[in-house]
Amino acid sequence: MAERVLADPLSGEEVRIAIVDQLMTRLAKDGYLNKAHAYSHYSAKISIHIECVDMGTTYPVDVTETVAPVKTDDEDAALDQFDAELEIKPDAPNDVRVATGQDVPVLTKDADGKPTIKGIRYGRNVNKK
Question: What residue spans define the domains of the chain?
Answer without folding.
Answer: 1-35+82-124, 38-79
